[in-house]
Amino acid sequence: MEEHKKQQLTEAGIHVDSGLSRFMGNEGLFLKFLKKFLQDNNYQGLIQAVEKGDVREAFRFSHTLKGVCGNLSMEELYALISRQTEYFRKEDFQEGAAMMPEVSAAYEKVRKAIEEAV
């Protein structure tokens, strides 16, 4: 991977070396799954669930997104989504929903970096 692309991804909170390790060093496969992340609907589902005030759906989408972020070594977004998921798991909708601006900012940072670097 070109160093400037790796740097872009790293600055967005993606631990590239860890991600490559999860994909057994297969850079092409790792990049393929980063591209697939851009088509994943869980973030949009999370937004809709929060807008509807549906804590169970918000939990389902945040939990799934947490797994995707973990598998792709999106460490910053993963940490935020993990905290948010726990709020929704405890049915503390207000605290989970209050995290949306921070989650959205981290998500957009990751999305933009992937679009530019991959």
Automatic annotation (TrEMBL):
<dbReference type="InterPro" id="IPR008207">
    <property type="entry name" value="Sig_transdc_His_kin_Hpt_dom"/>
</dbReference>
<dbReference type="Pfam" id="PF01627">
    <property type="entry name" value="Hpt"/>
</dbReference>
<dbReference type="GO" id="GO:0000160">
    <property type="term" value="P:phosphorelay signal transduction system"/>
</dbReference>
<dbReference type="InterPro" id="IPR036641">
    <property type="entry name" value="HPT_dom_sf"/>
</dbReference>
<protein>
    <submittedName>
        <fullName>Hpt domain-containing protein</fullName>
    </submittedName>
</protein>
<feature type="domain" description="HPt">
    <location>
        <begin position="43"/>
        <end position="111"/>
    </location>
</feature>
